[in-house]
C-alpha cells in the first residue's frame, strides 16, 4: 500500500468511543476522504448517532445509517475506499470486506490479544481476576480476532476498579496512541506484530441472564463478577425473596466470616454484608431494583435472611 494510493477511508462504527476514535483518525490524516457507516442503534440508550450526524455535517463527511448486515455488505461493495476502520460495529464482515484481496480494515478488541479472543473479552478478563487488561488495534481477518497487531494498550486493575473506570482508562490510552499508528497505516508503512496463536484463549458471548451471582463462590470472585458487569453493562444480580436486585458496587469483607452462602449477616444504611464461600463475605455498597429503588435497607429488608439463587429456588 503506497502513500499515493491511500486517499479514502471508510469508518464503520457507533457509540461515544467510536466517535472519539473517528475524530482522532480524521485529525491524524485530514487529507483522507471519509465515508461513515453507522448501525441503526437509536433504540439503544448509549446511542450517539446525533453526535455522529453533527460531526459529519461539520466535516462534510458522508454518513449512512445501516439497518442490517446485508445492507452493510451492499453499501461497502459500493464504497470506494483504500482503508477501513471498525469501532462499535454490530455485524460480522465477510470475505469481500476482510479477505486477503480486500483493502485493509483495522479494528479494536478490548483484550491483550491473543488472549480473550471472541465475545465480551473485557468482562471475562475482569471476572477471571486479571490484574492487567487492555486492548488491541489489529488488522481484521476472516479468523476470530487473529490478525496482526498495530497497537496494544495496557491498564492495571485495582480493587477499586470497575468496568466503567477500566473502559475509560483503555479509551484514553487508545486515543493517545492511535494518531501515530494511523499515520503509519495510511503511509503504507504499518508496524505490525504477528500474534502467537499458541497462546490464544477464547471467550463466549454473554447475555444479561448470565449475570446471576453464585453466593457459594469466594468473596473475591463475587466482587470481580459484580464489577465486571457494572454500569454501563446490565449489572450482576441476585434475588431477595422474589425481587431481582442488581448490584452496582461491592467490596470484599476484610476478615473471615462464616455463614451460609447468601446469608445476610449485617444491615447498615451504607452497606449490606452477605456471607460467601470459604468463610468469606461481600459488602454490597450500591444496588438497585427494576423500579430504580436504591436504598439498601429497602432492597434487603430485615425479614429476609438468605439471598436465593433465583426467584423460585429455596435453600435446603
Question: What can you tell me about this protein's structure?
Answer:
The chain has 316 residues and is α/β, with parallel strands linked by helices. The chain has two domains: 161 residues, Rossmann fold; 92 residues, Methionyl-tRNA Fmet Formyltransferase, Chain A, domain 2, CATH 3.10.25.10. It is built from eight helices and 14 strands. The strands form three sheets. Strands 3-2-1-4-5-7-8 form a seven-stranded mixed β-sheet, with helices on both faces. A five-stranded antiparallel β-sheet has the order 10-11-14-13-12. A two-stranded parallel ribbon has the order 6-9. Helix 1 links the parallel strand 1 and strand 2. Helix 1 runs parallel beside helix 6. The longest helix has 25 residues. The mean pLDDT is 94.
Largest sheet: 7 strands, mixed
- The amount of beta strand, in percent, is 25-35%
Q: What is the third-level CATH name, the topology of the largest domain?
A: Rossmann fold
Number of helices: 8
> Helical proportion?
25-40%
- Helices and strands, in order, run as EHEHEHEHEEHEEHEHEEEEEH
Give the name of the CATH architecture of the largest domain.
3-Layer(aba) Sandwich
**What is the gyration radius calculated from CA atoms?**
23 Å
CATH superfamily of the largest domain: Formyl transferase, N-terminal domain
Give the end-to-end Cα distance, rounded to a whole number of Å.
66 Å
Report the structural category: alpha/beta
Q: What's the average pLDDT?
A: 94
As residue ranges, the low-confidence spans are none
Shape: elongated
Q: What is the tally of beta strands?
A: 14
CATH secondary-structure class of the largest domain: Alpha Beta
Record the strand order, biggest sheet.
Answer: 3-2-1-4-5-7-8
Q: How many structural units, i.e. domains?
A: 2
Amino acid at each position: 500500500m503506497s502513500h499515493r494510493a491511500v486517499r479514502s477511508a471508510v469508518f464503520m462504527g457507533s457509540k461515544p468511543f467510536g466517535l472519539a476514535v473517528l475524530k482522532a483518525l480524521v485529525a491524524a490524516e485530514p487529507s483522507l476522504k471519509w465515508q461513515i457507516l453507522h448501525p441503526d442503534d437509536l433504540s439503544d440508550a448509549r446511542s450517539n448517532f446525533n453526535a455522529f450526524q453533527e460531526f459529519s455535517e461539520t466535516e462534510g463527511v458522508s454518513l449512512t445509517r445501516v439497518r442490517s448486515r446485508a445492507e452493510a455488505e451492499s453499501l461497502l461493495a459500493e464504497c470506494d475506499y483504500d482503508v477501513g476502520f471498525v469501532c462499535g460495529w454490530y455485524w460480522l464482515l465477510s470475505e469481500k470486506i476482510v479477505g486477503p484481496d480486500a483493502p485493509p480494515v483495522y479494528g479494536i478488541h478490548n483484550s491483550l490479544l491473543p488472549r480473550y479472543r471472541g465475545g465480551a473479552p473485557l468482562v471475562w478478563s475482569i471476572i477471571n481476576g486479571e490484574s492487567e487488561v487492555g486492548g488491541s488495534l489489529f488488522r481484521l481477518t476472516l479468523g476470530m480476532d487473529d490478525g496482526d497487531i498495530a497497537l496494544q494498550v495496557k491498564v492495571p486493575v485495582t480493587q477499586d476498579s470497575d468496568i466503567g473506570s477500566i473502559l475509560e482508562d483503555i479509551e484514553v490510552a487508545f486515543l493517545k496512541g492511535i494518531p501515530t499508528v494511523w499515520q503509519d497505516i495510511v503511509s503504507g508503512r504499518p508496524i505490525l506484530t504477528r500474534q502467537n496463536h499458541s497462546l490464544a484463549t477464547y471467550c463466549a458471548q454473554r447475555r444479561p441472564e448470565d449475570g446471576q451471582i453464585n453466593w457459594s463462590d469466594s468473596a473475591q470472585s463475587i466482587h470481580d463478577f459484580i464489577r465486571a458487569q457494572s454500569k454501563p453493562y446490565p449489572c450482576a444480580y441476585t434475588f431477595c425473596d422474589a425481587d431481582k436486585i442488581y448490584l452496582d458496587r461491592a467490596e470484599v469483607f476484610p476478615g473471615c466470616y462464616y455463614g451460609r452462602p447468601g446469608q445476610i449477616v449485617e444491615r447498615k444504611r451504607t452497606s449490606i454484608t452477605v456471607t460467601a464461600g470459604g468463610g468469606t463475605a461481600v459488602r454490597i455498597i450500591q444496588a438497585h431494583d427494576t423500579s430504580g429503588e436504591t436504598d439498601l435497607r429497602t432492597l434487603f429488608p430485615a425479614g429476609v435472611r438468605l439471598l436465593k439463587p433465583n426467584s423460585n429456588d429455596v435453600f435446603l
